[in-house]
Amino acid sequence: MVGRPGDTPMGKDNDAYLESQDDEIKRQISDSSSFDGGVPFQQQNDESKMIKFGWIQGVFVRCMLNILGVMLFLRISWVGGQAGLWYGSAIILLSSLVTSLTALSMCAICTNGVVKGGGTYFMISRSLGPEFGGSIGVIFSFANAVGAAMHIVGLAESVTHLMKDSDTAIIDNGTNDVRVIGLAVCCLLMCVVMIGTSFESKIQVLLLFILIASLANFVIGTFLPLKEIQIARGITGYDCK
Questions:
Q1: How far apart, in whole angstroms, are the C-alpha atoms of residue 68 and residue 211?
Q2: Is the pTM of this model over 0.85?
Q3: With CB atoms 3.0 to 4.6 Å apart as the test, which of 38, 67, 83, 204 could cross-link to 87 if both were Cys?
Q4: Start and end of every Amino acid permease/ SLC12A domain (predicted)?
């Protein structure tokens, strides 16, 4: 520690004392230079080596894939047919309100500190405590597993319907085909996850382009001439009459 001015010795030892104080100050400066805001440089180097995807691959792509999921492709039309245009729109608006409030709450939690590894679990455990965070984290994990199973079954059913339209089948063009296709898709997704998060992020970008192409195909397909089977099912297309 640096001595007080009153403790400075007088006489011929004054120069030696000043040199010792200079050495002490240099040592303290050298010790403090290894920290930046209380974080050691070694820890900063370790954090710089972490894989960071940014807001496009880490946030935008993942959110768009969740929005443009199996519920949008397979159940929006069913909701519109069962509830009608107005009630169906009301259901979508209420769902959007719930998700918007949840997103705003998460934004408020994120601005109170740095979000480390763990994502949602980290924020919940730091806000509500480790007990609530642990229980909600377990439920969140099961919800992701069930959601993945739902998306796999939805994809398998869609492929089965396409195979039925082309008069092809794996086993019986029914439940067994859904099981076979679902098992194959599940194994493929497991391989993607086991390769690594960086590869999984690149696959998500590819899937997003496929979803955008499917939406564009849906819009463009409305302008194509109708087939007889479509007319028999009640599809009229655009009509100004």
A1: 7
A2: no
A3: 83
A4: 58-228
- Whether 169 shows a pLDDT value over 80: the answer reads yes
Q: What are the boundaries of each domain within the chain?
A: 144-220
Closest among 72, 71, 66 to 204, alpha carbons compared? 66
Cα separation of 64 and 208, whole Å? Answer: 7
Closest listed residue to residue 200, CA positions, set 58, 66, 46: 58
* H-helix segments, 35-69: 41-48, 54-55, 61-67
pLDDT attached to residue 47:
53
DSSP state of 19: H
CA-nearest of 114, 96, 115 to 104 is: 96
Distance between CA atoms of residues 238 and 219, nearest Å: 12
Residue type, 20: S
Mean confidence (pLDDT) of the chain: 77
What 3-state DSSP class applies to 39? Answer: strand
The residues with which 35 forms a beta bridge, in sequence order, are 40
pLDDT band, very low/low/confident/very high, at 27 (cuts 50, 70, 90): low
DSSP 35: E
59 secondary structure, DSSP code: I
**Tokens representing residue 68 in the block:** 């443009």
CA–CA separation, 124 and 164 (whole Å): 46
Q: What angle do CA 117, 123, 126 make, to 5 degrees?
A: 105
Q: Which residues touch 240 (CB under 8 Å, ≥6 apart)?
A: none
Whole-number Å distance between alpha carbons of 213 and 228: 26
Q: Which of 72, 55, 67 is nearest to 158 (CA)?
A: 72
22 phi and psi angles, rounded to 5 deg: -65, -40
Using the predicted structure, report yes or no on whether residue 8 has a pLDDT greater than 60. no
